[in-house]
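ASSEMBLY PREDICTION REQUEST
Request ID: AP-0331
Submitted by: J.K., bench scientist
Number of chains: two
Total residues: 658
Priority: normal
Notes: Please return the full assembly, not individual chains.
Input sequences:
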Amino acid sequence: MMPAERELAKVPLRERAWFKELMFTLRRIRESPLSLAGLAIVLFFVAIAVLAPVLAPPRPGRDPFVMPRYGYLATPKPPSKEYPFGTAEGQYDMFYGCIWGTITAFRVGLIAVGGSLAIGITVGAISGYFGGLVDDVLMRITDVIYAFPGLILAMAFVTAFGVGLDNVIKALVLVGWPTYARLTRAGVLQTKQEDYVEAARAIGASNFRILVKHVLPNSIYPVVIVSTLDMGSMVLTAAALSFLGLGAPIGYADWGQLIAMSRNWILGEAGNPFAYWHTYTIPGVFIFTFVLGWNLLGDAFRDILDPTLRRR
Amino acid sequence: MGGMRTYIIRRLLLIIPTLLGVSLLIFAVSMVFSPEERAALYVTEGSLKAAARIEAIIKKYGLDQPVYVQYFKWLSSVLRGNLGWSKSLNIPVSRAFTELWPASVELAIYAVPLIVLTGIFLGKISAVHRDRLPDHLSRIFAIVGWSLPTFWSAIVLLAVFYGALGIFPPGRLGPEAQSIVHSPGWVEYTGLYTIDAILNRNLFVLVDALRHLFLPVLNLVIVGNAGIMRVMRSSLLEELHKEYVMAARTKGVPEKVVIDKHAMRNALIPVVTLAGIMVANFMTGLVITETVFEFKGLGYWAAHAATQLDFPAVLAFAMFSGIMFVVANLVVDVLYAYLDPRIRLG
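STATUS: Completed
Returned structure:
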């Protein structure tokens, strides 16, 4: 770091952009009871994911994401002492599937959001900082991706890449990044006019250095927070793709896949229409609650990018 | 209206790059496939199997030539209405569209107005009773609808209303009504069964079609109105704090009139801008809802095509969704300019 720049960088903790953003976030969550409920739900799922090896121990030497099965009979078994959530079509252990499906959900959500964010921030920063033709071209690309409904474009990508959970994640990244690119661009446009950016330029810092050291740290935190809250919708889209048969393979611990496996059993049997209620209800409650948690948490942030509601 | 005409022309020209971009993206996705596979994007008859024919297609459309040559040949083939061959249905993609659109449009003409009206209603209730019970209830309703996996709510509706109660079956028509609409006496005006039933004066088919429409429409409404509700709520709240509303109130205008006649009119304007997003959400809902209810429309076809690697069908459907979005936004912009002269002159 250049000496003059070091002087500029001596900012107390509570003046740092990320710290202010974190405090702002926590305050908004505390102010809204619905967000607190959302936070509780999200933490509950984190606990399930962390405790998965204890709650549903995988068989040694097996892929923990493949549900154990107890026989090859097609007809699902209702919940019992032995199988708390019953078994799915083909005698897969649904309790195991729902617990490990939580890890699958976090994995899909984190990678999809993280990947989209990485591309989005890079594109948005370049677009906003350099402007001109580069900006025009990059923003037209985001327009084009915006024109497609996310699930449908992801479907097209998965058809091209091949069916599978990894390809679903890739498709979600390709569909998801433009939102963050636009948000980052807006933040960069605002930040690059600040005095400290001018100062850094005056002392001869390079474009790359200004962008990475000064502009981005002061403009991307809202984007990062908004993106975290997109976990829910990412997981929802991934589950829908798994349900359509484009994601996780049969037997994989994935909520959408479990619901897809229930489709032959929706109507129950003669005289007992809800004989197999557990096959679709239990994984459905898992997905719904997971997404609801993130959406409730996010409810306090709808206006996060609204400058009139922010205090900086 | 001279200003209006130039505005429309300018706006029409502006969508051309976006539409070209949409086509480029679709074309780029198709380039993942080998020339032999891509032949399916051009053929219009089923005898694709013959290796000689594939060779001929590759030659004719230059599938072994530079990318830009291929793009222009593909685009001109698409513009002439040739979208390739759908192997999941075993008919040309363009014919699949003409055969399947009535089912999806029939869902849309019932679901979309209901989505919009319930969204506006809930948003209004929420804003008027801010921070009281009706507000909490409608916000919870909206956030629940927003978090519900469309495919799961569809399955639960089907299990209850068909599996247990037997009232609302899946599909578009029951077997009896099926045989009526395929009988020689039936005149097909639109392909939309409810409308054709009225024109054919057949109450039985009308009731049967409505019974089959009920659950898919209900499902689309449950998951579809959260966005409108949210915007309606905040936009009405904003209007209710403006000076003209205060002025009306101090003049002694009844609150109901203040809300319905004054504030609502202005509050509805931001809701209109949601049309593009609504179209996108609706298309997504259509894919899932039609699949679960076996309602054989465009969405059902696209989902099944995807699982059978029928990529010409998936790509054509994706392109169609993109074009719908662009057109919806165009219509909204033109309407806006018509309502607000500042936009077209600015």
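REVIEWER COMMENTS: The CA atoms of residues 73 and 110 of chain A lie 36 Å apart.
SIGN-OFF: pending second reviewer
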